[in-house]
Amino acid sequence: MSTTQTFSIASIPADGVGKEVVSAGRRVLDALAGSSNGKFAFDWTEFPWGSEYYAKTGLMMDPKGLEALKDFDAIYFGAVGWENVPDHVSLWGLRLNITQNFDQWANIRPVKFLPGVQSPLRKADTVELDWVVVRENSEGEYAGLGGRNLSGRGPGNEVALQTALFTEKGCERIMRFAFDLARTRTVKKVSSVTKSNAQQYGMVLWDEVFNRVALDYPDVRTESVLVDAMSAKFILKPEDLSVVVASNLNADILSDLGSALAGSLGLAASANLNPERRFPSMFEPVHGSAPDIAGKGISNPIGAIASAALMLDHFGLHEEARKVEAAIEAATGSGHLTRDVGGDANTEDVTEAIIKALTLAQATV
Ligand SMILES: NC(=O)c1ccc[n+]([C@@H]2O[C@H](COP(=O)([O-])OP(=O)(O)OC[C@H]3O[C@@H](n4cnc5c(N)ncnc54)[C@H](O)[C@@H]3O)[C@@H](O)[C@H]2O)c1
């Protein structure tokens, strides 16, 4: 008799479209589990944290929230940010509180071009494009170091320091992660994003570690590209990319550019990984709470659903992850597109189309 493997997942929809897309992703995962013949199941616990919680409590999450999260198998996150809370308070109070304290130091953000979705890049019509941004997720420009002072000297005199942190260990672990990932891909290449011409301390250390780590991976091709040139390369020569490793801020910007090139920010998935598995990892779409479209039921659920596929990979359910990705492709390929990618379908239509494609595929196995 086979036993069901149950994965416990903390869901944090948080704000705006985060609520809509997390609900869509949960439905897809539950449909997948429902047709797994009892092989696996998901046990969901939802946490009400976010900007509404802040309005009631003055906090973005329960002060004992990290304790409550630490034994889950994974966290499924929506997006944070609303007009009642300054963005730096909401981000640091919830999302960065989790990524930093759970040492989720590797953030992977695949750039995927989907059938039926028109890219603003003409090259995408004829060339197969597929790359992944690996973001250092624990230090760099988002280390949270610095301060503000001297406002007592009167108007116009305040100073602010925002210090970037680059540790040799932090650089080395993300670079090894990127090289290991490159070894699993058809094109074995890592592009390091730097700015060592201007940032002569942190980024020079970054380059030195990259060159040293590369020696251990003679089978993987490398290049080191300045971030300004890399943003041009994303547009002019994206076929040259496979794994792109970058610091926290640089990767944050480049991955938005990547998802825009694929057609929309609403398509992009991400995984915040604690590769040692000392803490749960967190899966979330790249996009924010999109206040301009929130509550209308028209947000694109694909970024969140593709993030759920990354969560399945994390659970070792690789075949199932590929099935979810194939179902996304079947849905977009058959014209189920939300407005951000040129269609007129709503969140519900696209989610249903993905579930339908998934259950059809399961039934024909
Ligand atoms: N990971 C996160 O939680 C995260 C990331 C980025 C921004 N934010 C926060 O989100 C808020 C809004 O920020 P922003 O406007 O700069 O970025 P955003 O990603 O929310 O929106 C940028 C644009 O993309 C569109 N968009 C985003 N997600 C979409 C989806 N699923 N379907 C269709 N269109 C989508 C929006 O309508 C908007 O036009 C801010 O409070 C910001 O701090 C949070």
Automatic annotation (TrEMBL):
Domain Isopropylmalate dehydrogenase-like per the UniProt entry, residue ranges: 8-354
SUPFAM superfamilies membership: Isocitrate/Isopropylmalate dehydrogenase-like (SSF53659)
Cofactor: Mg(2+); Mn(2+)
Catalytic function, reaction form: (R)-malate + NAD(+) = pyruvate + CO2 + NADH
GO molecular function: D-malate dehydrogenase (decarboxylating) (NAD+) activity; magnesium ion binding; NAD binding
Entry-linked InterPro entries: ICDH/IPMDH, IsoCit/isopropylmalate_DH_CS, IsoPropMal-DH-like_dom, TTC_DH
Keywords for the protein's UniProt record, in alphabetical order: Manganese, Metal-binding, NAD, Oxidoreductase
Protein name: D-malate dehydrogenase (decarboxylating)
Natural source organism: Pseudarthrobacter equi
